[in-house]
Amino acid sequence: MIFSTSCEKRKDNTIKNNILTFLVTCTGGSLDACNSGCAGKYPDVTGDNYPAASACFSACSTNCNLSTTLLLLTNK
């Protein structure tokens, strides 16, 4: 016995998802704003604060990279 299923066309949300990801992960909306936020959270980047501050600045570099965002937007 063969069962027939109807297939629905999947809506492409790639651009919407990538813009949302950029807005959520790039704190402040720009690299400078994100880095300023990290500097405000971790004014003393030594000792115990170093790993957290380093992770914060690294996340800014990754998440606020406009080249990466443009590649994600054009990758459909």
TrEMBL record:
This is Uncharacterized protein. It comes from Leptospira kanakyensis.
